[in-house]
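User: Need the bound-state model for zinc ion:
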Amino acid sequence: MRFGLAGVFHESHSLARPHTGLEQFSRYSGEQMLANWRGTRTELGGEIAAAAQFGFDLVPLLYFTATPSGPVTQEAFGTILEAITRGIQDAGPLDGMLLVLHGAMVVEGQADAEGLLLQQLKGMMGDRPVVSTLDLHGNISERMVAFSDLLVGYDTYPHVDAYERGLEAGMGLLRIARGEIRPAAALEKPLLLPVPQSMPTASQPMQDLLQLAHEMETDPRVVNATVAGGFAYSDEKRAGMSLLVTTNGDPDLARSLARQLAALAWERRGQFLIRNVAPATAVQRAIGAQQTPVVLVDIADNVGAGTPADGTVLLEELLRQGATGALVTICDPESVSQCDAAGEGAEVALRVGGKTDPYHGGAVPVRGQVRLLADGRFRHVGPYMTGQLADMGRTAVVEAGGVELVLTSRRQAPWDRGYLQVLGIDPAVKRIIVAKAAIAWQSAFGDIAREVITVDTPGITTARLETLPLYQIRRPIFPLDPV
Ligand SMILES: [Zn+2]
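Assistant: Bound-state model below.
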């Protein structure tokens, strides 16, 4: 068997700016795609491993991936789609396509772009199977299901099973191509729009939902059961929770199992509700804490979900309340340039952060001393993407009263401690750490945090969806409406 391998992976926040152009995507093709991803704990790594493990040939075509950010431009999507379809045309005879998609990519002026992509690819492949992996935050549509033979979603958040799902997708594709199974899928979309913060799979209600899905998968008639929490910040009709069950040739069973999962999700909807602490109260509690460090989770500036990383509400509150031993990371290339011009050891007066959009607080006046200037390149120390090179751009460390301020030129999500180590900062000795993330910060600070306070900051990844201008999402939907 000879399968094509391709993908485009992007989680798009409809309100994030700027929009995401082709230059924001890393592009891998041919042998370079295999060389770069082989051996990684990613779905692409799993799909590559599946070829060796289950005995099929892979023709690596193209893979595009970008950090979560604003909607993908029409031009970028058009180019990507054309490149992948041309890759398939030029690949010679293929017995099927193995894909990597996220499921929450938003494209300017194009609803359900991933559904369109699958439709075009399936149109080219005809009765030869098309199989893809999806992120747990994917917003699965009927079109995506109709124009694919099998969709395999992650079962974990934080996403630590991507590799295994890649293996599963590879094995599924092989079985379909050999005629061993004939997939029949059913998608249920209950009226639920949970936020990522409510979806860690080690907690309720996701834990019970995944357990039920795994029980279903022990039935030999069931090929896959996927519980996708969805991405509420993709302003599209398909946004929200998806329960997708694929059986071997039994559409009625698929429907009844998907309904069972949807019923459990609906029954437990109250557990998806989130209550966070007001910024002033959170900072006050952190200052008074006996056990430190305290992690203040800046939930609405969740960099890994596409936010600007320059939210200032917690910085302002820490300065106002005279906190000591606090660590705050903010993306602000303008302030970095100012520090660069002043030089190490110099006193600076800055207006920090709050420069991207009106959602995350305004620029905060800061007086302090430039302790360090650095190029901002570092290697992940793990456990997440261990060994991966990363680049936060030119970086300045400024001591401002009791706050140590890390100012970066590129958006840096707090999912690896390596970014601090390279600056000579030990987060374990800090009293307060501000983390701009929902759940993923745990891989950087989870082992040292003595207390965690999730803060109701303003911003585009707030848990209070009703404060955001989202207009395309289907209504009524819980918790936006009394359903
Ligand atoms: Zn995700």
